[in-house]
Amino acid sequence: MHSPSTVGATGTGPAPLVEPGAPLAPERIARFSRQLMLPGFGELAQRRLAAARVLVVGAGGLGSALVPYLAGAGVGTIGIVDDDTVELSNLHRQVSHGVGDLGRLKVDSLAETVTAIDPDCRVVRHPVRLTAANIGGILAGYDVLVDGSDNFPTRYLTNDAAVLAGVPLVWGAILRFHGQAGLSWHEHGPTYRDLFPVPPAPDEVLSCELGGVLPSVCATIGSLMATEVVKLVTGVGELLLGRVVTIDALSGRSREIAYEAIADAPEITTLIDYEGFCGLEAPGEAGTVGDAALAASAPVRVSSAELLRRIRSGEPLRLVDVREPREAELRSIRGSELFPLGEVTAGGGPELGDAPIVVYCERDLRSRRAARLLLERGHSDVVYLAGGIEEFAAVAADLVRR
């Protein structure tokens, strides 16, 4: 990566994305005075930002980190797409929302944060789930697309929509202590699909709910994404074209991975079924099979943090350990019942009852199979513990008997 001293302030990539708007009023010059004095920036760059229209997908960890910086930098119009509401578990990392916002739409809470920073910034709220059917209409009229989502179907959807619309896509991803940020722009370089041609298998994907995330990683990656938007709009600096930046917060190290466009990659001509492409059941298709068959084919998982919450709150539940007796002797979750997977496979296991069942093993390979078998036998409320006792012991050591 070039140091600031070796990269020209006027940039080394494509021309500025946005034409400058009207001259700045005196109060706007005063507001952005510390930014206007940056080498190679000046009033012209600030006027470009004022005329820019940026669409941000996601108002969660990344969105709540990067959107305030876009507003602070002077972006004139910010669109926000998110259909979710604020929950208590969001607040440790989604710092643009507060306790008073619990239950509110995230787009409303984040829009108010922007207004508090700069009342002149126009916020367009899109309180919907982004799909292949609606993204074209939502994206129309925006100059830049920013993806701060937390799932692979949306990442491939935004990539393809950006290619078809001819706009650059700034993307980021976070999990645990790590993060990535990059730029996808088909007109000038490789895209997200060139870096990740094939999505990972669903069983290999951890969400923030199941894997956890360090809040400051959201801030680090979100600020990198916001900076990339500013560079795109103004033409200042060197764009992340063909490069992805990765951050390891535990070691304090970052590195850069270079990649190129795949020469024989299929041309993107239309949007597809992205849930199916990523190996997931598309929303709204559950009616094509019986409810029991659907549940049996895909048992639900529960995170260690959620199980801990349910145990602490006194919710009635049955903990079912499907490991071997010798494993259970070494450690087990207090209050659990032992039914080895072989016994469950042979038709044994817990009897039908009213209490929800949480199945666990050392990791979660055996528990997924056991949960599926129990659902097939008529148990109506069965989940498996993602990461097994291995992850639960890291979260709630006092509840693990050794």
How does this model look, in words?
There is one protein chain. By secondary structure, this protein is of the alpha/beta class. The chain has 2 domains: 26-277, 3-Layer(aba) Sandwich (Rossmann fold); 288-401, Oxidized Rhodanese, domain 1 (3-Layer(aba) Sandwich). The protein contains 17 helices and 15 strands. It has helices at residues 26-31, 33-36, 42-51, 63-73, 106-117, 135-139, 152-165, 192-195, 208-211, 215-234, 274-277, 291-297, 304-312, 325-330, 341-345, 365-376, 388-395; strands at residues 53-57, 77-81, 122-126, 144-147, 169-175, 178-184, 243-248, 253-258, 300-302, 318-321, 332-333, 337-338, 357-360, 382-385, 400-401. An 8-stranded mixed beta sheet has the order 3-2-1-4-5-6-7-8, with helices on both faces. It has a 5-stranded parallel beta sheet with strand order 9-14-13-10-12. Helix 4 (63-73) packs parallel to helix 5, helix 4 runs parallel beside helix 10 and helix 12 runs antiparallel to helix 16 (365-376). Mean pLDDT is 88; it is low at 1-10 and 282-297.
Structural class, judged by helices and strands? alpha/beta
Range of helix content? 25-40%
Strand content: 15-25%
Low-confidence stretches: 1-10, 282-297
CATH A-level architecture of the largest domain:
3-Layer(aba) Sandwich
Number of contiguous helices: 17
Distance between the termini: 49 Å
Q: What is the global morphology?
A: elongated
- CATH topology category name of the largest domain: Rossmann fold
The neighbouring-strand order within the major sheet is: 3-2-1-4-5-6-7-8
Instruction: Say how many strands there are.
Output: 15
Largest sheet: 8 strands, mixed
- Any idea how many domains? 2
CATH superfamily name of the largest domain? Answer: NAD(P)-binding Rossmann-like Domain
Keywords: Nucleotidyltransferase, Transferase
GO molecular function, one term: molybdopterin-synthase adenylyltransferase activity
Enzyme class: transferase
Protein name: Molybdopterin/thiamine biosynthesis adenylyltransferase/rhodanese-related sulfurtransferase
